[in-house]
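Sequence, please.
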């Protein structure tokens, strides 16, 4: 438990990276696997990760990120997308459970109906995409810090340009970019409001 809370304390948003520091595809995959273990509504895993790993492809992000040099200097950049059609994942997620006898067909049919009903509401689908993909994004950043990497979530970028440049399907909603690498400038603790300001006991 102490190690987990140390990770929480040590994680800061890093905007200046060592451009010479590299990360392997295997290391990135390990972090993405950790992110994919995040909770999600109905376990539908409302996320997709676009991995920008290599200076050439990262350079294509520079104007999209309004010239933020961190997207080029970082060892990699992850674009976190939210799945607006996560209801289509029901068979992939729950089909194996039915096949292996952990879920009855009746329970599967009932769950599928509930998921379809919820996703008939476009606002719900959008909210679920943002909420659940953000859970995976936070889990990615914590996993990265636990492995000694620094990160920064970026909300200031041109989402429309990202979609156009990298031909993102209409199924997916851009949520954020996350830079990852080795900080070239040591981070410092950021101030937080007292918990009494952000908590109301009922």
């Amino acid at each position: 438990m102490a190690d987990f809370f140390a990770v929480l304390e040590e994680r800061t948003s890093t905007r200046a990276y060592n451009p010479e520091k590299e990360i392997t595809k295997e290391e990135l995959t390990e972090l993405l696997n950790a992110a994919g273990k995040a909770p999600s509504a109905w376990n539908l895993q409302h996320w997709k990760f676009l991995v920008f790993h290599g200076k050439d492809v990262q350079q294509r992000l520079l104007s999209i990120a309004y010239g933020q040099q961190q997207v080029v200097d970082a060892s990699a950049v992850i674009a976190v997308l939210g799945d607006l059609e996560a209801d289509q994942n029901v068979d992939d997620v729950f089909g194996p459970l039915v096949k292996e006898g952990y879920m009855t067909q009746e329970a599967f049919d009932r769950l599928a109906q509930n998921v379809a009903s919820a996703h008939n509401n476009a606002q719900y689908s959008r909210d679920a995409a943002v909420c659940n993909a953000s859970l995976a994004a936070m889990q990615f950043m914590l996993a990265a810090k636990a492995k000694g990497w620094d990160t920064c979530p970026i909300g200031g970028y041109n989402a429309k340009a990202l979609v156009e440049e990298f031909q993102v399907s209409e199924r997916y909603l851009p949520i954020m970019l996350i830079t990852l690498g080795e900080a070239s400038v040591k981070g410092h603790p950021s101030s937080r409001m007292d918990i009494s300001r952000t908590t109301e006991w009922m």
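Helices lie at 2-10, 25-35, 55-59, 70-73, 90-99, 105-118, 122-146, 159-165.
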